[in-house]
Design goal:
Largest interface: A-B, 29 and 34 residues
CATH class of the largest domain in chain B: Alpha Beta
Structural class of chain B: alpha/beta
Helix content of chain A: 55-70%
Helix content of chain B: 25-40%
Strand content of chain A: 5-15%
Largest sheet of chain B: 6 strands, mixed
CATH topology of the largest domain in chain B: Rossmann fold
Largest sheet of chain A: 4 strands, mixed
Mean pLDDT of chain A: 87
Oligomer: heterodimer
Shape of chain B: elongated
CATH architecture of the largest domain in chain B: 3-Layer(aba) Sandwich
Radius of gyration of chain A: 29 Å
Radius of gyration of chain B: 24 Å
Number of strands of chain A: 6
Strand order of the largest sheet of chain B: 6-7-8-3-9-10
Distance between the termini of chain B: 46 Å
Order of helices and strands of chain A: EEHHEHEHEHEHHHHHHHHH
Mean pLDDT of chain B: 87
Number of strands of chain B: 14
Strand content of chain B: 25-35%
Number of domains of chain B: 2
Structural class of chain A: alpha/beta
Number of helices of chain A: 14
Number of domains of chain A: 2
Distance between the termini of chain A: 28 Å
Chain lengths: 377, 331
C-alpha cells in the first residue's frame, strides 16, 4: 500500500527481514527474557520478607516481676513470629561487644529498679543497643520491639472510656507480596533488554556489517527504513513483554492478569511501551557506528531508566533531581500502567495518562530519529 | 553514431574537512561497456563508486546515471543501478530465496513478477538448487554469486561492483569473471568495476581508469595503457661480478628504453624489442666476463602500467577522514 511517499511494502520488507533473522536465531532474545525473570524470582523472594531468626541479647539488671514480663514477651515473639531468638547475658559490656562484632543484631538492657519504676509510674525505660549499619534491620527491630513495649504498657484492665485515638487502616487491595510488586518492573525490563539487543546491538552490528549499505542503494525512503527497523524492534519487544507477563504472573501468582479486560489493557501497555522504548533506543543509536557503543551504554541506560522508574522503590522516596528523571522516563509510565492493571485491576480511566505519555513519547522519538537518520553513509 | 553514455562524471570532488578523497575526476562510460577503476589502497576508488551509487554525498561536480543526476534524482538513479558492495552483506540466516525476495520487495516488484524474476536470476547465477539453503552455508564464491543476483533483482541497466572477487580463491574468481561477462551480455548491462587484481581488469574491462591520490592519472583500453608506458617487454636479469658502468652498457642494447637497477645485481630492463635485446644482453655478458645468473622475459602487463602510473605497488597509508568503514571485528 502506498501513502504518498510512504510505501508500506518496502517498510514491511525491512520488518520481514528482521523478524526472519530473529526467528532463526532467538537465543539472544531468550537470554534477554531470562535476565528479568531471574531478577523477579531472586529479588521477589529475597526482598519483602519479614526478618526472622535474628539474635537479640538481653541483660537483666532488675530481676523483678516487670523484667520477667519483658522476658516473657520476648519469648512470645521468639516462639510465634520467630523474629529473633533471645540470648540472656549477665555482662552488659560483653553483650554490647557482641553487637559490635555482629554476633548479635541488637541487645536489650533492662536497667536496675525497672520494676519499681513501672509501679511508681516514673518513666520506666528499657535500653536497646542496635547495629544501625543496616537501616532495614534496624527499623524492623525497632518496629517489633516498639509494638512489644506498647503491649506491655497496656493496662491490665481497660478503662470504660478509651481516651486514646487509634488509627484504623483500611487496605483497598489484598496484601501485595514483593514479587507481585516487582512484576510490572520485570515486564518492563524484559522489553527494555529486548529493545537494547534487538533495536540497539543488532541494529549497530548490521550497520557495521554493511547490511544498511545494501538498503541505502535501493529507493527506500528514510521514513520507510526507520519505520521498518522500529516496527521490527517493537515486535520483538512485544514478544518479550507477553512472555514475561504470562510467566511472571504465574510465578508471582497474579491472577488479575488473565481476566479478558486486563489482558487487553496489558496488551495495550505492552504495545505502547515497546514502541516508546524502541524509538528511544533508535534515537540514541541513530548516529552511532561503533558496535561497542550499545554494549557500553547498556548498563548506564538500565541504571538511569529502570531504577528511578518506581519499579523497585517508590518514586516519592527519591530526591528531587531523581524525580525529574522519573518524570521524563518512559519506564515510569510503563511501570505505573502495568501496576495499575496487574495489582489494582483498574481500567483505562486510571492509566490513560500513561497511555498518552507513551504515545507522545514514541511519536516524538520517531520524528526526531527520522530527522537525524542519514540516508548516506 | 556514437554510443550514448550510461555514466557521465564531470569534475567530481569529495572532501572530508581538509582532506580531499576524490579530486576533480571526470570520465564517461558508454552503454554496454565494462569500465574498470584501478588504484592503490586509499586512492579514492571506493569513495568514487559510493558517490555514483548515492551512498555518499558529492561535494562538487556532477554525476549522471542513465541521464539522471545522482544529486537531484537519486531515486531514479537508484532504480537504474545494481550495486555489489565490497563486504558480503547478504543475510547468512536467511535462505538464498529469502535474500532475493526481500530485496525485490525493497524495489517494489510485484509478487508475480518477483517469483519469476528470482527463479530466472537463480538460474543465471547457477544457484537454483541452493534456493532454500541458508546463505551462511554457501561457499565464498557462491555467496558472491548470490550478491550479484541480489543486485540484479530489479533489472538495472548499470551494474557497480566494488572489488567483487576480493577474498575468493582462484577458481571462484574465474567463475565470478565468467558470470559477470555472461550476465553483461545477456542483460546488456553497463558495468563499472573496482579491483585490485590487474589480471581481472585486463581480462574483463573494455577500458580502465587508474586513480591515485583521488585523481585520474590514466584512462584507456588495457592495450593502449600497456603501449603507453616505455617498452613493451620487461626483462629481469641478475648478474654476478658486473663491472662499473654495466647499467650504461645495458642501456645501449638494441630497443632498450629504460634500465632500473634493483637489489643483489638484479636489473629491470624495458625494451621495445624483446628478442633483440635478450640476444644482445647474453652476448654482452659473455664478452665482458659477467655471469648471467637468471633471466626472465615477459610482455608488459597491467602491473607494469599500474607501477608506472602510481609509482609503487604497495602503499601503506592512513587517512584521517570520517569515511564509514566496517570495524575491524567485521573485516
Amino acid at each position: 500500500m502506498t501513502y504518498g511517499f510512504f510505501k508500506s511494502a518496502r517498510m514491511m520488507a525491512i520488518v520481514e527481514r528482521d523478524m526472519r533473522k530473529f526467528l532463526r536465531s532467538p537465543a539472544l532474545m531468550l537470554a534477554a527474557m531470562v535476565f528479568p525473570l531471574v531478577q523477579l524470582i531472586v529479588l521477589g523472594n529475597a526482598f519483602g520478607g519479614k526478618i526472622h531468626d535474628a539474635r537479640l541479647g538481653l541483660v537483666d539488671h532488675d530481676g523483678g516481676p516487670q523484667a520477667v514480663r519483658v522476658l516473657e514477651s520476648l519469648r512470645s515473639v521468639e516462639s510465634n513470629a520467630r523474629t529473633f531468638e533471645t540470648i540472656v547475658y549477665t555482662d552488659e559490656r560483653l553483650m554490647i561487644e557482641d553487637v559490635r562484632r555482629g554476633h548479635l543484631t541488637a541487645g536489650l538492657v533492662v536497667p536496675p529498679q525497672f520494676s519499681r519504676a513501672v509501679y511508681e509510674h516514673s518513666r520506666p525505660r528499657i535500653g536497646l543497643v542496635i547495629d544501625n549499619t543496616d537501616n532495614f534491620l534496624t527499623s524492623s527491630f525497632e518496629q517489633v520491639l516498639t509494638e512489644m513495649v506498647q503491649t506491655l504498657n497496656q493496662p491490665d484492665f481497660q478503662p470504660r472510656v478509651v481516651q486514646q485515638a487509634e488509627l484504623k487502616v483500611v487496605e483497598l487491595y489484598p496484601y501485595i507480596e514483593y514479587m507481585k510488586y516487582l512484576l510490572p518492573g520485570s515486564i518492563t525490563l524484559a522489553m527494555f533488554v529486548s529493545v537494547m539487543i534487538g533495536g540497539g546491538i543488532v541494529y549497530i552490528d548490521d550497520k557495521a556489517r554493511g547490511v544498511h549499505e545494501g538498503y541505502l542503494v535501493t529507493p527506500i525512503t528514510k521514513m520507510e527504513l526507520v519505520a521498518g527497523l522500529n516496527v521490527a524492534g517493537a515486535l520483538k519487544a512485544m514478544g518479550a513483554g507477553v512472555v514475561l507477563t504470562v510467566i511472571g504472573s504465574l510465578l508471582a501468582g497474579v491472577g488479575e492478569t488473565f481476566r479478558p479486560a486486563n489482558l487487553l489493557l496489558m496488551l495495550l501497555m505492552i504495545v505502547l511501551t515497546s514502541f516508546a522504548f524502541v524509538t528511544m533506543m533508535f534515537f540514541i543509536m541513530v548516529r552511532v557506528n561503533d558496535p561497542l557503543v550499545p554494549r557500553a551504554v547498556f548498563g548506564i541506560l538500565n541504571t538511569l531508566l529502570y531504577f528511578p522508574s518506581g519499579a523497585i522503590y517508590p518514586v516519592q522516596a527519591f530526591p528531587k533531581w531523581l524525580q525529574w528523571i522519573a518524570w521524563v522516563d518512559p519506564f515510569t509510565y510503563s511501570v505505573h500502567g502495568f501496576k495499575a492493571v496487574l495489582l489494582k485491576g483498574v481500567g483505562l480511566a486510571a492509566i490513560w495518562p500513561d497511555v498518552a505519555y507513551l504515545c507522545l513519547f514514541a511519536l516524538t522519538m520517531f520524528i526526531f530519529s527520522t530527522l537525524l537518520f542519514k540516508r548516506t553513509l | 553514431m556514437a554510443t550514448p553514455n550510461a555514466i557521465e562524471v564531470a569534475n567530481i570532488v569529495k572532501r572530508y574537512g581538509n582532506f580531499t578523497a576524490v579530486d576533480g575526476v571526470s570520465f564517461n562510460v558508454a552503454e554496454g561497456e565494462i569500465f574498470g577503476l584501478l588504484g592503490p589502497n586509499g586512492a579514492g576508488k571506493s569513495t568514487l563508486i559510493r558517490m555514483l551509487t548515492t551512498l555518499l554525498e558529492i561535494t562538487e561536480g556532477t554525476a549522471l546515471i542513465d541521464g539522471y543526476d545522482v544529486r537531484k534524482d537519486p531515486d531514479k538513479a537508484r532504480l537504474r543501478i545494481g550495486v555489489i558492495p565490497q563486504a558480503m552483506t547478504s543475510d547468512g540466516d536467511l535462505t538464498v530465496w529469502e535474500n532475493l525476495s526481500i530485496y525485490s520487495k525493497l524495489y517494489g516488484i510485484a509478487t508475480a513478477e518477483r517469483e519469476r524474476s528470482i527463479d530466472e536470476l537463480l538460474e543465471l547465477v547457477d544457484l537454483g538448487q541452493w534456493r532454500h539453503a541458508p546463505a551462511k552455508n554457501l561457499s565464498g564464491g557462491m555467496r558472491r554469486r548470490l550478491e550479484i543476483a541480489r543486485g540484479l533483482v530489479h533489472r538495472p541497466n548499470i551494474f557497480f561492483l566494488d572489488e567483487p572477487t576480493t577474498g575468493l580463491d582462484p577458481v571462484s574468481r574465474v567463475a565470478v569473471w565468467e558470470m559477470i561477462t555472461s550476465i553483461k551480455q545477456k542483460r546488456n548491462l553497463t558495468v563499472l568495476i573496482t579491483t585490485h587484481y590487474m589480471d581481472e581488469a585486463d581480462r574483463l574491462c573494455d577500458r580502465i581508469a587508474i586513480v591515485d591520490h583521488g585523481k585520474l592519472v590514466a584512462l584507456d583500453t588495457p592495450r593502449a595503457l600497456k603501449n603507453s608506458i616505455p617498452g613493451s617487454t620487461v626483462i629481469e636479469a641478475q648478474f654476478l661480478h658486473a663491472p662499473a658502468g654495466w647499467e650504461q652498457s645495458l642501456g645501449q642494447l638494441n630497443g632498450v628504453t629504460s634500465v632500473q637497477p634493483e637489489a643483489a645485481g638484479m636489473y629491470r630492463i624495458l625494451t621495445h624489442d624483446g628478442s633483440q635485446t635478450t640476444t644482445g644482453l647474453v652476448e654482452s655478458a659473455r664478452r665482458s666476463g659477467v655471469v648471467l645468473k637468471s633471466l626472465t622475459v615477459q610482455s608488459t602487463t597491467l602491473d607494469d602500467v599500474f607501477v608506472h602510473y602510481t609509482g609503487r605497488q604497495l602503499r601503506d597509508q592512513t587517512v584521517d577522514a570520517p569515511l564509514y568503514q566496517p570495524p575491524a571485528m567485521y573485516q
